Fold this protein.
Amino acid sequence: MLELAILGFLYDAPLHGYELRKRIAALTGHVKPIAESTLYPAIKRLEKAGLLERATEPGSVAAPRHVLTLTEDGHRDLRRRLAEPVQRDITDENRWFTLLAFLRHLDDAAAQAAVLRRRLSFLEEPASFFYEGDRPLRAEELDDPFRRGILTIARATSQAELTWLRATLASLNG
């Protein structure tokens, strides 16, 4: 997820590390804050893999800044990750939102639609946070108001996403 966010934001424009960290935090920070001790090793891995380059610019007030730029290999790698997401990127809501934030960089509408169809298929499967044996429980079956609340909120969120997915797929296929 972190590498995808780094590549996605650098696809838009070169950024220095601090600005990149702010953008990633704005996208995912409420769920998983990004520490420097996590971000900078990921940047180094991507740089070592030839997916991004680092250039030094003079700082406006103090120390020089390192500006990160995506290479052509980085552009290709991002598009590959978007076109062929791992299953966890489809099923985990936070990873899905990160993928969705950059799906526009996949230029092919058919490839975008294929990713959206995978998410749609996942959401259409019966699921719950709570089960009786192997059977998923519905909100109406629970006496616990808090668990009922979880399921009610999840259902509303899923319905909104299903509506959006179907409409977006229709426009991409249209």
